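Friendly challenge for the regulars: who can give me the structure tokens for this chain first? No prize, just bragging rights.
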Amino acid sequence: MTDTKTIHVEQHGVISCVHLATPEQDTLEYLPCEAALGTGGIDIREVSESGDVNAIEVVNQTERLVFMMDGDILEGAKQTRVLNTSVFLAPESRTVVPVSCVEQGRWRYTSRSFRGSGRVAPRSVRAAKSTTVSQSLRQRRRHDADQGRVWDEVSHIDALHAVHSPSLSLSDTYAHLEKDLDKLVGSFKGHPDANGFAILVGGQLLGVDIFNRRDVCAAYLPGVLRAVAIEAVHLEGGVRMPKPTEASFRTVDFLDRLAGTATERHPGVALGEEQRFDTPLATGFTLEYDGQLVHETVMVLEKTGG
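First reply, four minutes later:
Bragging rights claimed.
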């Protein structure tokens, strides 16, 4: 695990966000996916006219590196997809990227290219993907996720909120809850010195994301908070909230428990190398490029608190 320190804790509703900093920050120059899409720098489309549920093609038309995060939700084309892992795209490159479907009931074009959604898949979906991607890499050297498990998690979230989506789309559930999600996470401001964060609901630590760049961390924080909130927005009174010092301690203690965890090395989908791990405590990976951290994500599997 990357060496980190806690620098600030924000709490609103049932959510605590522990802001983290690593000794080295901003050592790589690159664009995050949403920014690259916003400038027309990348084109994301189906791999062919007929398409492939579990693969998309990303063309980086810029002279810059581009980062796409595990859990990024892309809308349009023949159906909405979610990235199976984090990807670091080379300048002026064409890459087939492994994805999972989060819109089970549509297989027809609504646009020729995908568009960014600003949304990140909920932690339960990302955890289900992570464990099965690791299994696939060991067995077939492919970043394939268990599509059935992903659909199960999406269906569970839809049922939790009694949302009827004509195409069984996770994006429809987000849209249905948009005002509630905005209210729950809109008070979080982030921290200018942070390049990572840990998220807790009540006393339960859910996960950690650490980025190379502080600006990329700030860009992804709202999406990750909404991804947590979509599974917590229904919670009301009775959830015991930890004090900020306790939330910080739980995060540090968890990371200490993970220290020294054995990892398996695999080539990244594009540039870089992944170090993946799966334990009864957590699942996740670190993506590195040229010996430098690009993204580290940890999803907690074991109950860590009340």
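The first helix runs from residue 33 to 38. Residues 115 and 252 are 37 Å apart (CA to CA). Your move, everyone else.
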